[in-house]
Amino acid sequence: MTGTAQARGIPSLRSWSGVEVVLAAVLLALAGISWLLSGVLGMPEMRMGLLTGMGSAEMMSGGPAPFALFLGVWVVMMAAMMLPAITPFTIGVSRLVRVRRRRGVLPPLTLGYLLVWTAAGVVAWSVLRGFDAIGHSAASVRVGAVVLLVAGAYEFSPLKRWCLVRCRSPLALVVKHGDAVVRGRLGALRVGVHHGGYCLGCCWALMVVLLAVGAMNLVWMAVLAAVIAMEKVLPRAEIVSSALGAVLTGAGVVLLIAPGLLAPMG
């Protein structure tokens, strides 16, 4: 970790206490379990998307049961992808609130974060049903290309940078909401929701890309999780965002011009 990271409230790895190491290990273990569950729960219909060939529409039919199943799988996916990325943030918050002698704030903090992504799953369900209605054809590839173009453009947007700065800095969040954390678990839950909101602002476009290539495709999940982690942890996150934006935009342009590269033949 650099001095810049410490200025954001994220302590150097070399300075982590034994308790902080255990906390990080717990978060990463939960992420590992979530990855395993993602592999077990992954339905064929959710391993494919607009750009990779839609699966059966049976799972995407209306009704509470398919929706509940999707939402449960979605939360597991988000835990798998996001918990490693927020581990440095959580350690930073732990150290910053420790001086206020407040215990038990980290579970509701993480819960608040996951609640935001659970709410995002409701929107993701509607998007996925829309994608499923399109099917897989040259037209669907063009729709997927537009998704890539929008996601790529968003990586260069001021809103993305604004959310990313706040998502990366536990110091700014605790300075603003520290009193709420100290007052109790409800306050910590609210801070987790705030942090989740900033993270959603950073990553919503990438999640739509994931839906377009296959929400439960473990390879694409791993690629996007690695990118998200780099954006949150590396000192020059804007370089990662710009490179990602260029790749997504380039891929979108290519598929918009030549959808036959991915559309079914014949």
TrEMBL record:
Keywords: Membrane, Transmembrane, Transmembrane helix
InterPro entries documented for this protein: PpoB2-like
Residue intervals passing through the bilayer: 21-41, 67-93, 105-128, 198-227, 239-263
Keyword Transmembrane: yes
One Pfam family from the record: PpoB2
Protein name from the UniProt record: DUF2182 domain-containing protein
Native organism: Saccharopolyspora terrae
